[in-house]
Amino acid sequence: MPLSSPVSIGTQKQLFLDDLLIDRMDNIQRVFPQPTKHPANPIISRDRPWDAGRCDLYGSATYDPVGQRLQVFYSAVSSGDGHDDRLGYAESCDGGLTWTKPDFSLIPVEGQLPTNIVMDAPSGSFAGPAVFRDEREADPSKRYKMFTSSYPDRAYLGLPTFIHEQGSNLYADYSVDLPGLGRPGMYVAYSPDGIHWTGGDAPFSNMISDTGQSVMWDERVSKYVAYVRARTATGRSVARMESDDFENWSAPQVVMTAPDYQLYSMGVTPYEGIYLGTPWICWNLEGDTGPVLSPEIAFSRDGIYWQRPNPGVEFIPTGAAGSADELQIRMASSLVVLDDQILFFYGQTEQPHTKVDMQIDIGMASLRRDGFAAMVGSEEAGTLRTNPLIFSGGRLCLNLETEPSGSVVVRLLKADTARPVASSHPLSGDSICQDVPWLGDVNLADWAGSPVWLEFALSGAALYAFQFVEASSVQ
To answer: Do 383 and 254 reside in the same domain of the chain?
Structure first.
């Protein structure tokens, strides 16, 4: 996609999910790698009375750098037929190899303590609570923030109708009496550690988002941003909300629809200057088992306009017939970056979405860092040239993977004349950040701030990302 003016990228890492930076490609193919499922899935299973029905990642996963642990906040549903979702907690201190459900004396279930339940639903049942660590929060008691919908199961409890559709969203009618069940709506809560929670006393809105939520601090707009469910002419869709203080939220605005499928939910994570989404696609709405649910990959440069770069293809595929994840893969509210990998957590089941008492466990999959899309050259060398770029820094690093005899060669060209001003030694191997060695006496910083082209010659190689960095650092 040739551009008339240079793209200023500074020191921001660049991925290859679209053609924004690409001027031309010769004998290069873009591929979309799929995460590798953990061989021991499910990693977290139904083994307590209060999660015997569902141990479902209708919730969140995060990494605690202080405690050096992965934390999972999941929907724990008892063995009954109703939705009595509570917030369950599990953690791993070895990168996800082994998991524990710690015992706490916090929330009893039918008089039983200890449990690993860390919060009861404000109004009957949780709906997709989203939890994240707010590293910029000055108040340590609010380090963890939760954004959730909560409402009782009307059909199971035999309640009168109290939810009505208004525009693209659902809202609770507070004139309907629901004794002992709180007020249905949208809630926020806070915690210093993800275990001890406060808040959730009153809803900030009577809106109902009957899906998995997603929430974050968005550095680009300096606001909290949440993604919730909307209903449009194409069915289930994704809407976006904003807040300055996490307490007062804007009305939801629809930001993603899919004319070919319904979007059940979407987890969103800021990642390397863009936003990555894992929309749950309802693949066969008219099938005998109801919709098969699994994610695609989506991305956005502003969090509002979304693209599906590989539409119609499962990002994490459901399993073969008879497997434990045959019919549903239900993604967490965000992904987790840990060292050189990206971890994806999800609820999995071989049972249909239409089954009221479907049983769900938690699975995990991993992808190399930046590995969402790869530009691949076969043994016959291919070439990729960028549009004119303006960069900062003094070093260039590549995320690459080559065959034993493969290589990557980089050339830097003046954008106005296409004259080569620097060429690299061949690079090979498998690295998420390979420093580019230049031939001769090249000072890359001399070209910082000036429009240049990058040209990559790929032979038996995959290129996932590139990044200019300061001369004294490699990221």
So the answer is: no
- Please give the full DSSP string across 414-473, using - where no structure is assigned: ETTT--EEEEBPPB-SEEEEEEPPBSSS--GGGGTTS-EEEEEEEEEEEEEEEEEE-TT-
Distances (CA, A) of 447 to 216, 220, 337, 390, 454: 36, 27, 32, 9, 12
Q: Which residue is it, tokens 């290129």?
A: 463
List, as one string, the DSSP characters of 133-172: E-TT-S-GGGSEEEEEEE---HHHHTPPP-EEEETTEEEE
pLDDT score of 382: 95
Distance CA 408, CA 454 (A): 12
Q: Do 53 and 183 fall into the same domain?
A: yes
Tokens of 243: 């807040």
Task: Identify the CATH number of the domain in which residue 134 sits.
Answer: 2.115.10.20
pLDDT in the model for residue 353: 84
Mean pLDDT along residues 277-281: 96
Contact yes or no for 210/150 (Cβ under 8 A)? no
Report the run of H or E that residue 384 belongs to, with start and end.
Answer: strand 382-386
Give the neighbor-by-neighbor strand order of the sheet with 163-166: 163-166, 169-172, 207-208
Domain that holds residue 389: 7-32+373-469
Cα(351)–Cα(82) distance, rounded to whole angstroms?
16
- Own/partner long-range contacts of 434-440 (Cβ < 8 Å, ≥24 apart): 434/397, 434/398, 434/399, 434/400, 435/395, 435/396, 435/397, 435/474, 436/395, 436/396, 436/397, 436/398, 436/410
| Burial environment of residue 158 by CB neighbours within 10 A (0 to 12, 13 to 18, 19 or more) | exposed
Average pLDDT over residues 188-193: 98
User: Rounded to an integer, what is the distance from CA 220 to the centroid of its chain?
Assistant: 17
Phi, psi of 263 (to 5 degrees): -105, 105
Beta-carbon contacts of 40 under 8 Å, excluding residues fewer than 6 positions away, are: none
What is the model's pTM? Answer: 0.95
Choosing from 368, 399, 431, the residue where a domain stops is 368
Instruction: Give buried/exposed letters for 182-197 (b at 16+ CB in 10 A, else e).
Output: bbbbbbbbbbebbbeb
**Does one domain contain both 105 and 179?**
yes
Question: Checking phi first, is residue 440 left (phi over 0); if not, alpha (psi -120 to 50) or beta?
Answer: left
Total Cβ atoms within 10 A of residue 398: 22
- Beta strands per DSSP E along 114-261: 117-119, 126-133, 144-150, 163-166, 169-172, 185-191, 198-199, 207-208, 214-218, 223-232, 235-243, 253-256
Contact yes or no for 331/267 (Cβ under 8 A): yes
Among 80-89, 98-107, 379-388, the range with the most confident prediction by mean pLDDT is 98-107
Residue 69 parent element (H or E): strand 69-77
If one counts the domains in the chain, the total is: 2
Q: Are 404 and 21 in contact (CB under 8 A)?
A: no
Nearest-CA neighbor of 213 among 114, 161, 145, 282?
145
